[in-house]
């Protein structure tokens, strides 16, 4: 009887090692040897599971995007009203600071999207998924009369995601230029104006 393949476990281990290496060293300073040493393997052994470092980092990016979007959907879905869901979305999208593991990971991997179409496609998917979640919340609020939108739902959703991305970059710098609470307040200010709703926290 053939032994079960350990390839899935080994691939998962390498993805985890690569994830931590990106956080520790940054994408621009990362080498295949760093992954190999972290996993206790030779560089050739790493390439047995992932043909190139780019292939491995694509898996790190795929996992990070899925985890980030899933967490946001869960946070919003836990609230019964559109206003509550909108508040939860806004609060789940901003990094807590330079040590926010998932957001820092996404920003680091996002730098490759400037040069690599595959990374760019997944980064676009991340953006579109967030816009979709926001759009659904805004449309639900408008349908129930809870929101009176000042523009179409998609445009508001795109602005919210763009604001999150912009503030997030400032929050994850080595020396942040503002605090998460300040960024959240500015996002909420725009959202209140765009929905004509005070968005009070009643949870």
From TrEMBL:
Under PROSITE patterns, the record lists: HTH_TETR_2 (PS50977)
Query: Has keyword Hydrolase?
Result: no
DNA-binding region positions on the chain: 31-50
All copies of domain HTH tetR-type, residue ranges: 8-68
Residue ranges crossing the lipid bilayer per the database entry: none
- Keywords in alphabetical order, please: DNA-binding, Repressor, Transcription, Transcription regulation
Q: Does the keyword Protein biosynthesis apply?
A: no
**Name the record gives this protein:** TetR/AcrR family transcriptional regulator
Q: Give the organism the record lists.
A: Amycolatopsis speibonae
């Amino acid at each position: 009887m053939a032994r079960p393949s350990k390839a899935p476990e080994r691939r998962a281990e390498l993805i985890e090692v690569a994830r931590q290496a990106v956080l520790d060293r940054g994408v621009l300073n990362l080498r295949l040897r760093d992954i190999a040493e972290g996993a206790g393997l030779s560089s050739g052994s790493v390439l047995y599971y992932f043909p190139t470092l780019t292939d491995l980092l694509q898996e790190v990016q795929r996992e990070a995007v899925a985890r980030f979007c899933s967490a946001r959907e869960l946070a919003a879905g836990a609230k019964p009203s559109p206003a509550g869901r909108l508040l939860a979305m806004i609060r789940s999208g901003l990094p807590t600071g330079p040590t926010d593991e998932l957001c820092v990971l996404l920003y680091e991997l996002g730098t490759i999207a400037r040069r690599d179409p595959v990374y760019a496609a997944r980064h676009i998917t991340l953006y579109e998924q967030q816009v979709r979640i926001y759009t659904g919340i805004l449309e639900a609020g408008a349908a129930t009369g809870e929101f009176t939108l000042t523009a179409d739902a998609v445009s508001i959703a795109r602005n919210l995601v763009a604001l999150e991305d912009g503030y997030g970059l400032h929050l994850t710098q080595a020396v942040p230029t503002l605090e998460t609470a300040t960024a959240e307040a500015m996002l909420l200010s725009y959202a209140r104006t765009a929905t004509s709703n005070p968005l009070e926290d009643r949870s």
